[in-house]
Amino acid sequence: MMSDEEPLVRKYSDNGITTLTLNQPKRRNSLSMAMLEALSEELNAVAGDPETRVVVLASHGSVFCAGHDLKEIQEQFDNPDFQLALFHQCSKVMQQIVSLPKPVIARVAGVATAAGCQLVASCDLAVAADTARFATPGVNIGLFCSTPMVALSRNVSRKHAMEMLLTGEMIGAVRAEAIGLINRAVDEQVLDETVYGMARTIADKSGYTLKVGKEAFYRQLEMPLAEAYEFTSNVMAENMQANDAQEGICAFLEKRKPDWKDS
User: Fold this and answer.
1) Of all helices (H) and strands (E), which one includes residue 13?
2) In this structure, are strands 9-14 and 17-22 parallel, antiparallel, or unpaired?
3) Across the strands, what pairs with 31?
4) How do 171-172 and 133-135 pair as beta strands?
5) The pTM of the whole model exceeds 0.90
6) Sign of CA dihedral 241, 247, 251, 257
7) What one-character-per-residue DSSP string does 95-137 give?
8) CB 113 within 8 A of CB 142
9) Other CB atoms closer than 10 Å to residue 84's CB: what's the count?
10) pLDDT tens profile 52-105
11) Per residue in 182-215, pLDDT tens?
């Protein structure tokens, strides 16, 4: 049984993979201000950890994340400053995930709704149990999922995003995979095998190269075509001067495993 002293976000690291686990199952792992601050702190720590190459974002309990804590919001109805601070803090955390110099994989079991769905969409990759469900149901309670919309609309097509936002209806993991919200829907019995198999594959790469590639990916997305090619040409030319790029090319030509220096 979880005690009051247990952290809101648990951290475990092994062989270059750090798992951050939302750890408030009795509150459906909701993104209260305290949970958001704890997650932000852990993301800051892992960003500067040279041993971490990949981050897995998981949850404890039967719900991945039910979005914002509506009880907390209700208690603060008369405090618009808190409401604004809450949504700013949530937006900060989502942007931390995108700007983190390590790939982030969401491990989704259970329900991910509203800001919880936003959390999944903000991760670089996502694998879900085929029993998982997703929704942006704010419209059902008069509070449109406007901030979740940002991450959702950058991962799925406009019409699929609008369908989720306007109807508020749940979709299953197979449907979520089909529209691009997640990478894979798998049997829950092989969820960890799939997630950590993917994580190990990525962790075997150069940490420097992963950082360069992730940053360039998100930057070029917002550019016109010609500007994106100009930018990425410069990125590749600079990347070519890195120790790991030269080591990787030599290792490939010499048919041996590269010895990454992460530089």
Assistant:
1) strand 9-14
2) antiparallel
3) none
4) antiparallel
5) yes
6) negative
7) HHHHH-SS-EEEEE-SEEETHHHHHHHHSSEEEEETT-EEE-G
8) no
9) 10
10) 999 999 999 999 999 999 999 999 999 999 999 999 999 999 999 999 999 999
11) 999 999 999 999 999 999 999 999 999 999 999 9
